Amino acid sequence: xxxxxxxxxxVFSPLLGIIVLAFMPKMEEKAIKLxxxxxxxxxxxxxxxxxxxxxxxxxxxDFAVSKDWIQFRGMxxxxxxxxxxxxxxxxxxxxxxxxxTAIVATLSAIAAARxxxxxxxxxxxxxxxxxxxxxxxxxxxxxxxxxxxFEVTLIPTFFLIGKWGYFEKEKAxxxxxxxxxxxxxxxxxxxxxxxxxTGTTNIDLxxxxxxxxxxxxxxxxxxxxxIALLIAFGVKLPIFPLHSWMLKVHVQAPPSVVMIHxxxxxxxxxYGLIRFGMGIFPEQFETLSVLIAVLGxxxxxxGAFLAFIQADFKMVLAYSSISHMGIVLIxxxxxxxxxxxxxxxxxxxxxxxxxxxxxxxxxxxxxxDTSLIENLGGMAKGMPIAAGFLLAGGMAxxxxxxxxxxxxxxxxxxxxxxxxxxxxxxxxIGIIMTAAYLxxxxxxxxxxxxxxxxxxxxxxxxxxxxxxxxxxALIVLIGVYPSVLSSPLQTTxxxxxxxxxx
Amino acid sequence: MMxxxxxxxxxxxxxxxxxxxxxxxxKEASAYVGILLTLASLIYSILVLFERFSEPTYSTxxxxxxxxxxxxxxxxxxxQLNALMLFIVSLVSFLVHTYSKGYMHGDERFPVFYAYxxxxxxxxxxxxxxxxxLQTYIFWxxxxxxxxxxxxxxxYKEEAKAAAxxxxxxxxxxxxxxxxxxxxxxxxxxxxxxxxxxxxxxxGAVSQTMITLTAILIFIGAVGKxxxxxxxxxxxxxxxxxxxxxxxxxxxxxVAAGVxxxxxxxxxxxxxxxxxxxxxIIGAVTAIFAAxxxxxxxxxxxxxxxxxxxxxxxxxxxxxxxxxxxxxxHLMTHAFFKxxxxxxxxxxxxxxHTQNIEEMGGLWKKLKLTGPLFLIGTLAISGVPGLSGFFSxxxxxxxxxxxxxxxxxxxxxxxxxxxxxxMFRLFFMVFTGEARGNQKHVHESPNNMTxxxxxLGILAVIAGYxxxxxxxxxxxxxxxxxxxxxxxxxxxxxxxxxxxxxxxSLAGIYLAYLMYYKRTIARNWLSGTGDTLHTILLNKYYxxxxxxxxxxxxxxxxxxLLRFIDVFVVEGLVKGVVGIVQGLGKTGSKMQTGxxxxxxxxxxxxxxxLAVIFALTGGYLR
Lengths: 502, 622
Prior knowledge:
Mean pLDDT of chain A: 89
Mean pLDDT of chain B: 87
Strand order of the largest sheet of chain B: 1-2
Order of helices and strands of chain A: HHHHEEHHHHHHHHHHHHHHHHHHH
Distance between the termini of chain B: 90 Å
Largest interface: A-B, 58 and 51 residues
Oligomer: heterodimer
Strand order of the largest sheet of chain A: 1-2
Distance between the termini of chain A: 36 Å
Low-confidence stretches of chain A: none
Number of strands of chain A: 2
Structural class of chain A: mainly alpha
Number of strands of chain B: 2
Radius of gyration of chain B: 31 Å
Shape of chain A: globular
Number of helices of chain B: 25
Number of helices of chain A: 23
Order of helices and strands of chain B: HHEEHHHHHHHHHHHHHHHHHHHHHHH
Shape of chain B: globular
Low-confidence stretches of chain B: none
Largest sheet of chain B: 2 strands, antiparallel
């Protein structure tokens, strides 16, 4: 069976929703929300089908597609010198991210239907465009295509933050744009140098070329390119000290956008570091591994200590994201199977957990108009179910065994302890601090005496259960049966390890 | 039977899930779900225990997580220690489930309470059948969550909230030790399996330094969970939880998990003299340290909490002096008499609605069942001959003496004196003398509360006879059967130790009798003569305050320092970036002045420059 069309449809199917929405009247609130939600379903079903395809023992290479796209010819030459193809494909790692994206996007659409209060049409059109960008980023097989999709994610996000956010939304949106714009600029330079020097942007081909000692790039240049990549994706991840933009975004963007932003967009940074940084420049990555480990520990502790004293729950979660991305770096710096698998697990796991927590923030804000911890308290009285999920989400985030966070944290540390035990030992302080700041925040909101005005607030209801239950189920599933993630990853891991020469 | 022992933890898990989903509808009928399912666990545990008497150890495993070539497994194992623990845990849990039906009657969140109890029991049972360190760690943490949820059950009370948070974070500090130790050990032995770790250690594949380091790190985990000094401060605070919880978690089962962990990894600890000595010292220090605090406390549950800390110290001391059997034996007897004491204390609180012993008194006549049962527990913990505590404490003292630690032996003996003293102080103040508080509607507790107490009372008396110097050391022989490394089933000790222990215990009781019953010695002779000492004890040696001033303050200081960096340095960087972008923009826009003269001048200069270059290079640019 020819499955080449699947990925193209998967990536571009939200376009259908955009077109339908374009022809709808602005005030049809219910219909717009419905279309916006339905448009996220085709990618979801296709992504899940692809996952099942893999689990039934079929080859993911069936999905690969490659078509002529752009060619640059010399003056008197018939053969094109530089060709860019339209290439999409799936490896186990990409598959997981695509599934994650599709799930979080659908749930975010539900959140948007609950929490977005105005101009639904514009919101959902931008949102669907964003989804195309994200799906494209994770399926693109060459750097140019990756870059284009990467840019496609920036613009809708900018408007989604700037228009539908909270009080300082414009500032947050610009800060987002400037940082990410600079990151993309650096990324573009790297891509162009690689393209000019090797004549291709195909990721697998580049990996092969770079592994060849006679490659047309000096090792200094490779190191320089890797450092540039580290900066470009470090903005996205974010790596300290490039993080301040994401704090603003986390606080100012609407909850449904933060679900996407924290759940998926930050993960592009991790994806890029793993696939391009580690994949294309394995030797140089090894040279930098101590630096990356140190950066990872700094991220982990810096985020954790700052999360400990935040007054706003959204800020706690924002710093918590920084802290958790430190775990990704720690795992990568280990450069062994356990570490890299831990990093990838963390990418998926944090995507689910932060989506859950930010959805609950949305629920909370919707009812109380605040996310300041001191203004809340005793919410378990009025909304026991939401409070229970918040506590469970907090537990997942602090790495409670039986939930996804533990498996990733454990593997990342397992990996790093083998290579750099001292740095890892410093990092374990983060495990304690994570518990401290999450309990401080979560108990501050749900435990204690109930504020009088919030005793009658409504608990979770109706569709609000869908995101919460689905995300929690996935978090527990991964925690209890991690093979759902690890089995697709084995080939990816082997490839990376092969590149590392191990 | 044994091959299906994995079912034992699943019954309470089922209870947890059922109650989570349908608790609201079941209301107080939730209790039956919990009670029946833990009863199933109990019955199964008893069957497994009996089967284990005659059959060899059963274990099985399957792949849980694959990392490249590493296959991490999960599974379960029924060895002697595990079978015994399954029995203890499921028994106490079942009794507490039954007891709570009366104790928690009328509580708004009754089903939630039973759901949490189920979760905890599941985790604890899972912990004690784990065949490898990773799985142990997983359940270890889950047990912690169960405890956290139950301590914070009265979530609207600020004290309960603080206590729950403290318990979680303090035990987590210990857990990180376990976490690091476990991972380091893995890279040394390439396995988390207990059996493989032991054989690697035995084969000398691990260096001595590494054995000591990992053993001590793992012990730190046990220190946190078992409330050993210096991570003990959470345990007395944990008394904010409902009393049945204190009996189940903070007396009989979870806090004993640290002791269980050391026992389960005993061959590792045996390989390092330093690690063993560390355990013994920490144990002895904790035993006497906590006992001394127990003397001055006035909250009935806190006295019991400090006595728990102290008794756990005893168990650690036993293990640290290579008294494997003594440690496990005391774990078992303690589980019974301490659970009894807590449930009886709960019954008292249920009757008089206060926990302050200054407001009790004269309850012997009013609580006709609770009183004698509390007395049995008190006699047992004090080490009065004939009851269970006497035999197990005796074993520990012998182990300490024979292990060649006379100082630690002396500490343990003094602690035994204190234990007898403060436990009888508690008993006399609660049950004898005049009624001091408002005791109008005092009545005995309902049957579902007293029956579990009666059963535990019987066990508190007879449980010691499975391992005595008089009738044979059946338990000890069985525990070490097939594992000569663990030591002998029974250590012969000089007879004077038993006599000394008895004398010390009776002396403690007599002193309490004189002070709190006869009143021939003034109650305040201690606070009167040594005011400073009394204040120090009352304030629990200021350990909490010390942590507040050092660790907590340092954490806050670091956080604020980092905030300073975040606000000024990192934001400064942001301003810099924004400044550069804006600067470029402004420069760019300044060029667009719209003045044709400027444009013309620039164009002319450019042309002139080109002409010069053209001339200098001789016509072509190369």
